[in-house]
Amino acid sequence: MSLMSKLLMSTVAATVALSANAQPDNKQLLKYVKKAVVKNPQVTVKGVTVLESKTDERLAGWTILLTTMDLEYQKKEIHAPEMMFVKDGLVTGHLVDLKTGNDYRDEIKPSVPQSYYDDAHLLFGNKDAAHKILIFSDPQCPFCQEVVPEIFKASRENPTKIAVYYYHLPLLRIHPVSDILTRVMHVAQHEGKMDVVDKIYSLKIDPRETDMTKILSAVKSHAEYSVTAAQVDANEVKKALKEDEIAAGKMMVSGTPTIYIDGEWDKMRNGYKKLIK
User: pTM of the prediction?
Assistant: First the structure.
């Protein structure tokens, strides 16, 4: 069970009645979260912020609220994403299609804010390219290693068609080594050495490795890139990685790679192929 699951311990199909307003106010949302979402008595719910309100043609009459729950757990502040479906004075966290068994909670993603397409995250391609691809990834994720380098390649070969914007999302519970690797990638990117970022995806290393010296040595040998521990440990590097994590949370990213093409979630992760035909 993940830390977030332990914090929330939410029920799968809890539905709570609200007043008949078209959209519940913050007080109602807060009441719903406390009653139906956060079940852990050790967690204090401080507030709920609506990031986006949207509709879906498959869910007639339903309003989808994409929110952030402001929580406190063991004196630490946690901002957890939560999706809510609202209709006719009812609110629920899950809507399941009985024919397919699919939960629409897993089918809907927030819209990508324009601010996410900034120069600091532009990895390959021209920023005025015809299409923008946004990627959240961990270089040690096997699925990422299959897909992401191919997108990099497509952008390098078609810079006027595809611009790649890259956000680090190391899955540290699975690949502790990614903590240092993603910081190395960040340093390399801001030195203009984009090829190093690409090469890290083919680095063979123990995913549980945490020794800084061993990891930097492996990077030097594989990617022909030298970086110091001081560079990797710099506060501005750690801050940048934290900001990427926050960005992923606001986009409700739960796995890697998560890919968006021109602001739309690319669930199958192969939409880039259509852009270069």
Answer: 0.86
pLDDT at 85: 96
- Rounded CA gap, 12 and 241, in Å? 32
Q: Is the pLDDT of residue 205 over 80?
A: yes
What number of other Cβ atoms are within 10 A of residue 255's Cβ?
Answer: 12
pLDDT at residue 249 in the model:
87
Task: State the average pLDDT over residues 18-22.
Answer: 56
Tell me how crowded residue 167 is: count the other CB atoms within 10 A of its CB.
20
Q: State the residue for tokens 């939960």.
A: 103
Within the chain, residue ranges assigned H as helices are 3-8, 26-32, 142-157, 178-190, 194-200, 212-223, 229-232, 235-250, 272-275
> What amino acid is encoded at 215 in this protein?
I
Mode of pairing for the β-strands spanning 131-137 and 162-168: parallel
